[in-house]
Amino acid sequence: MEKTFTIIIPVRMDNDERRRNLETVLRWIAPLNVPVLLLEADAQSELGFYKEKFPNLEYIFVYDENKVFHRTKYINVLLRKAKTEIVAVWDADIIVSYLQIRETVEALSGGNGTIMYPYDGIVRMLPADKSDIFRDDLNLHAVERLSLPPLLGRRSCGGIYFVNKTRYFSIGGENENYIGWGPEDAERLRRALIMGHRVEWLSTGSAYHLYHATSSSNFLTSALTEMRKEFIRECSMDREEMQQYINSEMPFRWA
What is the per-residue pLDDT across 151-180, written as a single tens digit (0 to 9) for each? Predict the structure, then answer.
């Protein structure tokens, strides 16, 4: 899989568990030997030392004092910077198997898909003690043998996804009207489907979410309310209306 895709990880660290999870993810993906773009947006740089620890990693720091971490904006920044056609957008606390990654890259490389999730729609949360064990030994087989319940009662569309960059940009890339976190994952999926683009999940294999304490430092209730209203409005659009929305609200942000 060498150099066949790029992994992008936009982050803002707000507690030690998130930092440990990020390092665990970086250790997990290191054997893939693909370019990794790590962007930290915060008031000060704390993660620059990773570029010395991981040879394939490029570190980008963006000074940003905003209370809300504008993740969609920084994903677009990294998508523009990636030099490969296939790009994996990877949360800093998600683990999936190497086989699932390979199957996803092969499917996107040989097909006409725009977005593909490298798991079967099920994300399973590791409790704190199991997360500690995995951070130490990186033994995914042991994790897969655990009886962990799904994180959601429906098919998930977050955590990690791969895109064909050209096709994804043709439907606007990330929608920067969505800030922080909330319905942006569902919006991405819904917009692609309205535009007639192919979105797929693998038939088997879960994704695993490493435990971390929840922080509200990058989240505002008022912003979430507005994003929900925006998502409801988008869900009512047909393809022509969505194209107009993309042209007016998301104009060539990747150019």
Answer: 877 899 999 999 999 999 999 999 998 987
Report yes or no: 38 and 137 within 8 Å, Cβ to Cβ.
no
Helix, strand, coil percentages (3-state) for the chain, rounded to 5, are: 40, 20, 40
What is the average per-residue pLDDT within 88-109?
A: 97
Name the DSSP class of 141.
H
CA separation (Å) from 3 to 28, 35, 56, 101?
Answer: 17, 7, 10, 13
For residue 38, give the 3-state DSSP assignment. strand
Find, among 78, 102, 230, the residue nearest to 165 by Cα: 78
Q: Does the pLDDT value for residue 47 go beyond 70?
A: yes
Which run of H or of E encompasses 62? Answer: strand 57-63
Place of tokens 């047909």: 238
Residue in the structure block whose two tokens are 């390092």: 23
